[in-house]
TrEMBL record:
The lineage of its organism: Bacteria, Bacillati, Actinomycetota, Actinomycetes, Kitasatosporales. InterPro entries: DNA_helicase_UvrD/REP, P-loop_NTPase, UvrD-like_ATP-bd. Residues 230-626 form the UvrD-like helicase ATP-binding domain. PROSITE patterns: UVRD_HELICASE_ATP_BIND. This is UvrD-helicase domain-containing protein.
Length: 806
């Protein structure tokens, strides 16, 4: 056979394959047309029903209608948005063998997973018994037969679970790519290539190289895409895990933890909407990650029921995105702060001008309590554990007791308790109207707000008193200095770690107490020692609201924590308060933790999750990084956490990371002004900019430049004018994000920037949060990685920094 024949045959095969692809695409187009026709019918029907209900003055809420025909109605109302904003309304198809009757599928429904014994004939032939189309929402035809099955329905599970090793009934899995109403193409995986399957008498063809690789190769934008068309089996198990108790998921970078957590939220809503509607909280580490991920749920047809909040925005009315330096963050996040804040919450009662004497006129005579007596009353009030603001009624009550005693009236009426009670009531009522008394109470037991108390910690002497035996001198100094930003009244800007302190204080202070009411029973008379005491009167009585008292927090039905390895003990307490009665999904990767005291955080996490039973999952495949990048990052992982197993990268691109040294002839990078305005000054900046430009030309999507936290502003200037495809970010901000290409600037600085002491004393190999942060930085790229080293990196002749050499 001549060379020309070989070429002709190959061309012929390619032309055949093209023909099959076109034919298969046309077939799916026919199905999609039918789906849209049906959806249009349902939209008209829904509009008519809404209209009709409105005309007849009935309650025609979408909710009420949805119950009539929930699945199709929902599809209808989402359709227009799906059309305009999202691709792939219908994205999947499975062709199945006949199943064993009566066998249950992965979710316990009667969807047989295993084929019937005679599904494959002895000669290897088999007929496709069932074809299912899978989409973002379910659509039924006029006879209630499914045109599209919701991806979350049990019947759709084999689309995700089938693998060539355990194919079950699935012969062919097809991913359909469409835009609006147009089918663009199909990608098939044959899960049982050993059999000759036919559909309606025709042989079942397979088109393309599989959908996963196609999805992974696409350029990235500034928003995360859903993975609904290519969820992998181990991910699907997490998404569909029963909601009960706590689901814990660990996996290395790029294993899909964030994606899986968001798809799980959509799944839980589908399974039990009544329970979860309005009640799923997703906690994300940074506002950047919130905005990166917030389109995923709407693309899955879920909006409004899930709150995605950054750790700095978890308290209503507060929006913090500033970072503290790591040593400060470490103090603020430590569990030791709970004790300090407890003292501060009580100590703050003495912040203003505390009156040392109470003088009133009662029943026509002067009664007075002196400093010692007042101190004794205060001690007595503080004997309980109720929130400080809620102790105010008790303070009032005990002051009245002391005044009553002092007035001698108690003795005068000792023989007649009934009369004594009556007189006492008059005594209290008189004093409640006496401004000398009410003004005194306001000054002596002021209403405290969390911000005010937090700001009070900025006074170093005062803080040292409150923190005695809990914080070291250096820590007190750092903390006090950092809180000065808040100003005296506490209205200054908050850092992310301040928010957890604020939330802790909200708990310790409680809401401002109700104003005293006549004949009010002091609940603490009976209940001293209870954690939280309010009466119906307190709750319904008029409150003097302060503008800086935030709305009550909510109690969620399910809490999803992303990047859980980074929560500080105080943040765990803050999140735990929002899920006291919740079920939980907690995803994270210890190898990416930037927190130093991991034992302390583990204890706080255990407390937040309580004694609920746990179900653990591990994700093992890295879908983000090509193997060439993952292998480099694994060197740092080996230093940061010796012995840990990295996830396995799913693809190889042939593009190895590029190393560039920005070291001048004098060995300086000049970024710290080593030689003034001269050559070395902006060598690093110029190099980084040039590398970013180079990557922008090489990839279609985004380029992220990751620098040590202290260099963020500088890095933004380096990139000025390069357009919005290039982004500069600090190492801690890179959490959870990804870019087509990244420039990682000075690995040594990123590792040191976090914790110089840990890095230089322990040295590489001693582990440490700094190296884990570097590991995060190195695992953000989906295609290309460039490393720019400065002098601190001690690059070798090839520009490879010391930390990344073999
Ligand atoms: N089954 C899948 N099909 C297609 N893409 C996937 C799949 N699973 C994950 N990905 C993609 O891999 C990338 C990494 O996913 P994700 O950000 O959820 O990982 P992660 O485990 O949270 O990573 P990190 O720990 O680094 O934050 C994303 O682009 C995601 O869309």
């Amino acid at each position: 056979m001549g060379a020309q024949d070989t070429v002709d045959r190959a061309d012929g095969r390619a032309a055949d394959a093209e023909g099959v692809r076109e034919r298969e695409t046309r077939r799916e187009q026919t199905h999609l047309d039918a789906v849209y026709r049906r959806l249009e019918e349902k939209i008209h029907e829904a509009e008519f029903l809404m209209d009709d209900a409105a005309k007849r003055g009935q309650v025609g809420t979408p909710g009420a209608l949805a119950e009539r025909d929930a699945q199709v109605f929902r599809a209808g109302i989402h359709l227009n948005r799906l059309n305009s904003e999202f691709e792939d309304f219908l994205f999947g198809r499975i062709d199945l063998l006949d199943g064993k009757t009566g066998e249950r599928g992965p979710d316990g429904a009667y969807t047989s997973v295993e084929p019937a014994d005679d599904a494959v004939r002895p000669d290897g032939g088999a007929d496709i018994a069932e074809t299912l189309h899978i989409g973002r929402l379910g659509v039924l035809d006029a006879d209630y037969a499914p045109l599209v099955i919701d991806w979350r329905a049990p019947a759709a599970a084999p689309f995700y679970r089938a693998t060539p090793v355990t194919p079950g009934r699935v012969v062919r899995r097809r991913v359909i790519r469409s835009k609006g109403r147009r089918v663009l193409g199909v990608e098939d995986d044959l899960l049982r290539p050993e059999i000759r399957a036919t559909l309606d008498g025709e042989e079942l063809p397979a088109v393309g190289d599989g959908a996963l690789m196609a999805a992974l190769g696409r350029a990235r934008g500034h928003a995360m895409r859903d993975i609904v068309a290519s969820i992998q089996a181990e991910q699907d198990e997490v998404i569909r895990a029963p909601a009960a108790s706590v689901t814990e998921v660990e996996g290395g970078p790029g294993t899909g933890k964030t994606a899986v957590a968001l798809h799980r939220a959509a799944y839980l809503l589908y399974r039990d909407r009544r329970r979860y509607a309005g009640g799923i909280l997703v906690v994300s580490p940074t506002p950047l990650l919130v905005s990166y991920t917030e389109g995923v749920l709407p693309s899955l047809g879920e909006e409004g029921q899930v709150a995605i909040r950054a750790l700095g925005s978890l308290v209503d009315g507060v929006e913090a995105s500033a970072y503290d330096d790591q040593p400060v963050a470490r103090v603020k996040g430590s569990a030791r702060m709970v004790g300090v804040l407890r003292r501060a919450a009580r100590g703050a009662l003495e912040l203003g001008e505390v009156p040392q004497r109470l003088r009133v006129v009662a029943f026509g005579s002067r009664v007075e309590l002196g400093a010692d007596e007042l101190r004794a009353v205060r001690r007595q009030v503080l004997g309980g554990t109720a929130p400080v603001n809620l102790m105010r009624p008790r303070a009032r009550r005990l002051l009245l007791d002391a005044l009553w005693e002092k007035s001698g009236a108690a003795r005068r009426h000792a023989h007649d308790p009934e009369l004594a009670a009556e007189v006492r009531q008059g005594f209290d009522e008189d004093l409640d109207e006496e401004t000398d008394f009410t003004d005194f109470l306001d000054a002596w037991w002021p209403e405290l707000t969390p911000r005010r108390v937090l700001a009070a910690l900025a006074d170093e002497k005062r803080l040292a008193r409150w923190a005695r035996r809990m914080l070291r001198g250096g820590e007190v100094r750092l903390l006090a200095r950092s809180l000065r930003r808040l100003g005296v009244d506490g209205t200054g800007p908050l850092s992310v770690h301040d928010v957890a302190l604020l939330d802790e204080l909200r708990q310790l202070l409680g809401p401002p107490a109700a104003r005293p009411r006549r004949q009010e029973d002091d609940p603490l008379d009976q209940l001293t020692g209870l954690e939280e005491v309010t009466t119906a009167a307190d709750r319904s009585g008029p409150r003097r609201r302060r503008p800086d008292v935030e709305e009550e927090r909510r109690d969620y039905a399910h809490v999803i924590v992303d990047e859980a390895q980074d929560l500080t003990p105080l943040q765990w307490r803050m999140v735990g308060r929002r899920g006291r009665h919740a079920t939980w999904t907690v995803v994270g990767d210890p190898a990416q933790s930037s927190w130093t005291d991991t034992d302390e955080a583990a204890a706080a996490r255990a407390e937040a999750l309580g004694g609920r039973p746990r179900r653990r999952f591990e994700l093992t495949v890295n879908y983000r990084n090509p193997a060439e990048i993952a292998e480099l990052a694994d060197r740092v992982l080996a230093l940061a956490m010796p012995g840990s197993t990295p996830p396995e990268a799913v693809r190889r691109t042939g593009l190895v990371p590029r190393f560039v040294a920005a070291v001048g002839a004098d060995g300086a990078d000049g970024a710290d002004g080593a030689d003034g305005e001269g050559n070395g000054e902006d060598l690093l900046g110029r190099t980084v900019r040039a590398e970013a430009e180079r990557l922008l030309a090489e990839v279609d999507g985004t380029v992220g430049v990751v620098v040590a936290m202290g260099r963020r502003t500088q890095a933004r200037q380096w990139l000025a004018g390069l357009g919005d495809r290039a982004v500069a970010l600090g190492s801690l901000e890179a959490k959870g994000l990804e870019y087509d290409a990244t420039v990682v600037v000075s690995p040594a600085e990123i590792a040191e920037g976090l914790s110089p002491r840990e890095f230089t004393e322990g040295g590489p190999g001693a582990g440490g949060a700094g190296l884990r942060v570097l590991y995060v930085a190195l695992t953000r790229a989906t295609q290309r990685l460039t490393l720019v080293s400065g002098p601190r990196d001690l690059p070798d002749a090839d520009g490879v920094p010391d930390l990344l050499r073999d």
